[in-house]
Amino acid sequence: MSRMWFLTGCLACVLVFGPALADAQAAQGEKKDDAAKKEDKDEKKDEKKGERYITLGTLSGQIVRVGDGGSTFTIRLRGAIPTWVPTRIWYGRVQGRTQFTPTSEDLDIVLADEAKIRIPMRPELDEKGRPKPGTPKRDPKDRDSNLGGMKGEPGDLAKDQWVTVTLGRSTNPKNPQVVAIVVLVQRDTANYNKRDKDN
Asked: Rounded to whole angstroms, how far apart are CA atoms 189 and 24?
């Protein structure tokens, strides 16, 4: 008799709570689908906006190598290490001077997909090869004119140019790489040497 009551109670529980459990599972499935759709929308928004970067700082140096059409390059950073050199002992005190030892280090840099390249403004030349007065003029459509120079492309980067590079870290947690987001060419010695050879 007790078994019969037990089986009857189990059957009643299934009949009462079964549909509610099925509804709860269906709602969880819908929530997962909604979450997946939101992630897809967020990824599409990020793709439209472009990747964002956190500015880390700037480096200045001379380009020693350019590869992959300008998408990667190597700059040589120059500096000096101070060392104290004793020169004499005067009344029981050691006297000396600071000597600076020059040092350099090569650093490989990767350009961001949307990196801004700025090159020195070049004046327009007349028939005799002299710069025309009133040139160069700033492009009014150039939104990044406050960075200096004029708009350039990765292909404009060449060996022996002196550049200031602004580094940034990607905010994408899946790929937090450090890349160059702005490259400002300070001295375009490579192109000046080519002009001298042509003339």
From this structure: 70
